[in-house]
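Slide 14.
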Amino acid sequence: MNPFEVFLEVVLRFSDLKWSQFRDDLIVKCMKALRRFRDGKSVEEVLKDGRISSEIEGVLETLHSFARNSDPEEVSRVIDALSMFTKAPAPCKMKIIAIVETILGRRDVKG
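Slide 15: predicted structure.
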């Protein structure tokens, strides 16, 4: 998985695009999990810490796989991107998602 795919997986999983509602609290938990995975923790170790893993169990394997197969710098970039996303207002979040979907070829390009 590349950084764009991981970013989009996280933000879409915790977003209701119909109502432009976002679970920033769960995205922050994903950031914390990514930090731990980047630092060498296992999925089991992160699962033991319910403050982090609660409500994001379904995405932990994806995050762990990405962190295990990527450079620490790349993982840090995804963490930073998720942090910027959580601080953006809802209309900007919708545009960010649209941009990443377009980059990944998941959205039709107007030509």
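Speaker note: The helical segments are 3-13, 24-38, 43-48, 50-53, 57-68, 72-87, 90-103.
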